Amino acid sequence: MPDGSSILITWPHRGGEVALRLKPHPRARRLAVRIDAAGEAVELTMPRRCSRAEALRFLEDNRLWVEKRLDALPPRIVFADGAEIPVMDVIHRIRHVGKIRGKGPAWIDAGEICVTGDPAFLARRARDFLRALAKEEFQRRAIAMAALVEREVSRVTVRDTTSRWGSCAHNGNLSFCWRLIFTPDGIIDSVVAHEVAHLVHMNHGVRFWQLVERLDPDAKAHKLWLNRNRARLLRIG
Ligand SMILES: [Zn+2]
Q1: How many CB atoms lie within 10 A of CB 63?
Q2: Cα(194) to centroid of ligand 1, in Å?
């Protein structure tokens, strides 16, 4: 684990600059560079006794690789009036509207995500709404799928995770990345199936994978889809 003393600076990139996070890591053997797709930052892992100058030199030596990766990042989609957001893989346009009696701060109507209130808070309201929608959707599916394997789901929560799409705790609580709400039906079910299978087998043993196969025969293809679309999903909202 990084020791928490990471330093954020900037790095010149194509006439502008990009965030650069220097992460001292006591157990790292060598310098390593990666792109943080969600934060649009370059991350440099530094072993003990590596100077900043040495780290920056390493980054310059790898400039071509880093620039290629930065350029390949999918466009960021900000929650704003008119933005096109995939909700369960169907494009929905965000529309700022006036308050309607009997409706909450946001709702979906005819392919539009309608958001009310002060425009300054539109992004936050859209996000809150989509997170709530995600929770409702994943919970419904998890309960139904758990019934198939004669288990019960204790609690479903959604989080803004960047490295795991789902998790299952020993007490039967399931947690999912809310961004799965942007993916197709089959992908959501696939992540739900994996976590529900953990309600039966709390490991990644043979019998666990046999159960996953039964609940989600296309698990491998679904996993591949998620890997390929990860950066795009992290850059929505
Ligand atoms: Zn697992």
Answers
A1: 13
A2: 6
For 164-180, the pLDDT digits (tens) are: 999 999 999 999 999 99
How far apart, in whole angstroms, are the C-alpha atoms of residue 112 and residue 171?
Answer: 38
Task: Give the pLDDT mean for 103-121.
Answer: 94
Per-residue model confidence (pLDDT) at position 30: 94
Cα dihedral across residues 19, 22, 27, 30: positive or negative: positive
Distance in Å, CA 174 to ligand 1 centroid:
11
CA of 204 relative to ligand 1 center, distance in Å: 6
DSSP secondary structure letters along 29-97: -S-EEEEETTTTEEEEEE-TT--HHHHHHHHHHTHHHHHHHHHTSPPPB---TT-EEEETTEEEEEEE-
* Spacing, Cα 211 to ligand 1 middle (Å): 12
Which positions ≥6 away from 190 have C-beta within 8 Å? 216, 218, 219, 222, 223, 226
- Residue 220 Cα to ligand 1 midpoint, Å, equals 13
pTM for the complete prediction?
0.85
Written as one letter, the residue type at 56 is L
Which domains are seen in the chain, by residue range?
7-71 (no CATH), 84-234 (3.30.2010.10)
Mean pLDDT of all residues in 84-88: 97
Q: Measure 137 CA to ligand 1 centroid, in angstroms.
A: 20
Specify the residue for token string 């684990």. Answer: 1
